[in-house]
Fold this sequence. Notes:
By secondary structure, this protein is α/β, with parallel strands linked by helices. It has a 5-stranded parallel sheet with strand order 2-1-3-4-5, sandwiched between helices. The protein is globular and about 80 Å long. The protein has 3 domains: 11-130, Response regulator (Rossmann fold), CATH 3.40.50; 144-336, Rossmann fold, CATH 3.40.50.300; 341-484, Helicase, Ruva Protein, domain 3 (Orthogonal Bundle), CATH 1.10.8.60. The chain has helices spanning 19-29, 41-50, 67-77, 93-101, 114-142, 146-162, 176-187, 203-212, 231-239, 256-259, 275-287, 313-318, 324-330, 344-362, 373-378, 385-399, 412-415, 441-459, 464-471, 475-484, and strands at 11-15, 34-38, 55-59, 82-87, 106-109, 193-196, 221-225, 240-241, 253-254, 264-268, 289-290, 299-300, 304-309, 333-336, 368-369, 404-405, 429-430, 433-434. It has 20 helices and 18 strands. α14 (344-362) crosses α16. The relative contact order is 0.07.
Amino acid sequence: MNLPPPDLLPVVLVVDDEARSREAMRRTLDEEFxxxxxxxxxxxxxxxxxxxxxxxxxxxxxxxxxxxxFLKEARQRWPEAVRIIVSGYTDSEDxxxxxxxxxxxxxxxxPWVPDALLATVRAAAETRTLQRSLQRLDVDLRTATPxxxxxxxxxxxxxxxVFDFERIERAPGSxxxxxxxxxxxxxxxxxxxxxxxxxxxGKELLARAMHYASPRAAQPFVTExxxxxxxxxxxxxxFGHKRGAFTGAYDDHPGLFQRAHGGTIFLDEIGETSPxxxxxxxxxxxxxxxxxxxxATPVPVDVRVIAATHRDLEAEVRAGRFRQDLYYRVAxxxxxxxxxxxxxxxxxxxxxxxxxxVGLELGRTALRFADDVAPVLLGYPWPGNIxxxxxxxxxxxxxxxxxxxxxxxxxxxxxxxxAGVSAASGNGHANGVALPASGTLAQRLEAMEAMLLxxxxxxxxxxxxxxxxxxxxxxVGLRAKLxxxxxxxx
Length: 490
């Protein structure tokens, strides 16, 4: 029987059917957290009923109910608990689906590193503390005294500074400059905006910057990923529900449109919604009111809608998968965020910013890249964009024993400059290598030279004699170029 947790320690629930794994996690975490242990989902449910859990650390492979299935249930019953999945299979379909459906904060790859695991759980607990603080602040602000109004003003000033357009990391002359300039102009007007761009390009960050530059900045900014949950749950999440509307609806639940009243709602991946749900969303946007599930009384709402999608919505309209009338409602103005492979000049400053953030997360603020990292980052097409770049940097930093992070610690696909696509795919890659589409002439030529050298060396199985002959170089000249671009190591 676990003792009641000390008041000052966040509670972490470790769910794993292997006793040795639970013990290892306990030894890693118990100095900073109060640890509860469960060997299966049923035992975990009982603990969650009795304790206020901050973080759930759950193994994927368990008898009976899998980790993702349990975390899906936990999201509905205990939404404030931050959910982390532990697995040895990064490409598992269950894991990929569960990241969205179960609202998983992060997954930890086996075998895990103690310091990295501690940093991950620490960040998750801080996220939960911040969420609760924001909820309490929202309640306080609604009954604001002069002191609270002053605090609100100060918090708004800090938020505007953090989410300023100038804080969106990019290089001078970046293709993103024009997008940010247009977004900043549009921010002052109450127009619906549709943000187009691939997953991981920073569409939500752009939407936040627009909100905090708008007259609605003092009101809430709320977000929902429309692809993350089923239509029935999405309707309840956005429009709210009344007590008893369905099984499990124990209390009235205000939807995100009501919570965003006076502010902005960001609907990510709106292109993934079904035609049936699109009809309901269209009515809300036309009438300016929501009808909670199970209620006959509409509730007026005043929100600005910023939507985003990675799909070509005009093509979806022509194909009959997206309603034309809804398209014109959400696409008052359209902004397109270019993918990272078309912003080669932005990779270096973004990578430096991400390394700084990862250093803070891992408690290693002196982290810096080795000289051989830049050509490697420029030579990969980054199909997952900034999100993929962040994951690669976090992985390399966690694996590095020194403060200098070398290129060899990045994954093989990044080192080889390949993303598993062919030139025939039309994505601007030749033999899986990204071709630069922007940047200065010198930057583009240098990146292309590095990619050509890598392609030749890989194709000739690192035979320098044959490579030098094909490229018309001496072995000394070839070696100098390989050293220059950080390609000397296979």
